[in-house]
Design brief:
By secondary structure, the chain is mainly α. It has helices spanning 2-16, 20-32, 38-59, 61-65, 67-89, 105-111, 116-128, 136-168, 172-188. Helix 1 runs parallel beside helix 8 (136-168), helix 2 packs antiparallel against helix 9 and helix 3 runs antiparallel to helix 8 (136-168). It starts with a helix and ends in a 7-residue tail after the last helix.
Length: 195
């Protein structure tokens, strides 16, 4: 039981703290509302646990074997995050122009593979919450299920925060400042890549 509580605490802390997923969801919800961001949230909530399982099954081995491949994925993910940060920062306030659609289910699920924070979480969770010598897959399933359970409530909080920001920051200049803040935090989430 202590193991599950510790794992759940880790999952909540890593799922609820600012990172690319929650910042994109907050910014999208500020633009289009919570309901239209649900496919994005489901993509994260199911895509990240699928990533955990895929890495546990060995799909992470090529990245460990070929450091250049890992670095290429980091660069690709970083470039995509910079592009998303620009899209968030330059998003017009509601009513000024049609907002771009939020990331969909498949896009959000695929994004986990180039999300630097997702990689850091997986690379921390698998060694921390598995026992050497025990079969890895059942342990990875437990980790993936815990993340699947805690992810959606954490993402709903950020979507709600984004929606409320829109309501509170209804004036164009204040909403632009919110968007720029979300974009800046997204860019700051890239700092671990610059090592």
């Amino acid at each position: 039981m202590e193991y599950l509580l510790t794992l759940m605490g880790f999952a909540i802390a890593t799922s609820a703290t600012p990172g690319p997923n929650v910042l994109m969801i907050a910014a999208s919800a500020a633009q289009v509302g919570v309901r239209r961001v649900i496919p994005h949230m489901l993509g994260v909530s199911l895509g990240f646990p699928a990533m955990i399982l895929a890495i546990a099954l060995g799909l992470g081995l090529p990245l460990a074997s070929y450091p250049w491949l890992h670095r290429a994925m980091q660069i690709l993910g970083g470039a995509w995050l910079l592009w998303l940060a620009w899209k968030i920062a330059s998003a017009p306030p509601p009513g000024e122009a049609r907002p771009s659609p939020p990331l969909g289910f498949l896009g959000a699920a695929a994004f986990q593979w180039v999300n630097p924070k997702a990689w850091m979480i997986v690379l921390a969770a698998l060694p921390a919450f598995t026992t050497p010598g025990e079969p890895l897959l059942p342990q990875a399933v437990t980790i993936a299920l815990v993340f699947a359970l805690v992810s959606m409530p954490c993402l709903l909080f950020w979507a709600w925060l984004g929606r409320e920001a829109r309501r509170v920051l209804g004036d164009g200049a204040r909403l632009r400042a919110f968007n720029w803040s979300m974009a800046a935090l997204l860019v700051l989430s890239l700092l671990p890549l610059v090592r």
